[in-house]
Amino acid sequence: MVNAIIEFLQPYLSPPWGYVIVGLATLLENSIGIGVIVPGETIVILGGVYASEVGKPPLWLPGVMIAAAVGAVIGDNIGYWIGRRFGRGFLERHGERLFISKERLDKGDAFYKKHGGKTVFLARFVPVARSVGIILAGVSEMPWKRFFMYDVAGAVLWAVGNSLLGYLAGRSYDTWEGYANQIVLGIVIVAALVVGGSKFVSWRRSKKTEASKA
């Protein structure tokens, strides 16, 4: 079954349309919250599989990574601005019908003000949550520069990780067994450093605020 799907998509996942499909899939998955309909993550992994073919692969691995990251960042920013431009007003007018009170909106604002960076970064690695989380970041009016910084970090790591996952899956396990654990460990370390760094920055910011009030 899997081989049949791969053979069906083979003509389309080739330059230049292969990169367009990867980028468009990640853009649509994240821009308007339709991650369940458009499996962007699966398309990225499949792009990595095609890039692993021996000889002359139909796709270039760095090209898959770039297309996935760019599509994700553009889609995320569209979702963010949709939430900021339309979501807030919609929920303020009709939120009660959806069991979203003003109190819950205020709690959401407070949560994103305190944990918005970590939420945007970590939600990138959770299906559906990454689609909804970015829209809520816009609804909560999270500062765009802060959103963009964490979004780019998460999108790049996500794109590289899933592309490599597909690439390694396409290669024989015996060939890549010695490198797989190192790559996974590297991704975990980078994620831990980003989250730890964000906590340190928040701590320093709170200390400066306390010092200015003293």
List keywords for this structure.
single chain, about 210 residues, 8 helices
Question: How would you describe this structure to a colleague?
Answer:
By secondary structure, the chain is mainly alpha-helical. It has one domain. Helices cover 79% and strands 0% of the residues. The chain has 8 helices and no strands. Helix 4 crosses helix 7. The longest helix is centred in the last third of the chain and has 41 residues. The protein is globular.
Mean pLDDT: 78
**How many separate domains make up the residues?**
1
Number of strands: 0
Major sheet size, sense and barrel closure: none
Tell me, briefly, the overall form: globular
Strand content: under 5%
Spell the H/E element sequence. Answer: HHHHHHHH
Please give a quick description of this structure.
With 214 residues, this protein is mainly α. It has helices at 2-9, 17-31, 40-51, 61-94, 102-123, 129-139, 144-170, 173-213.
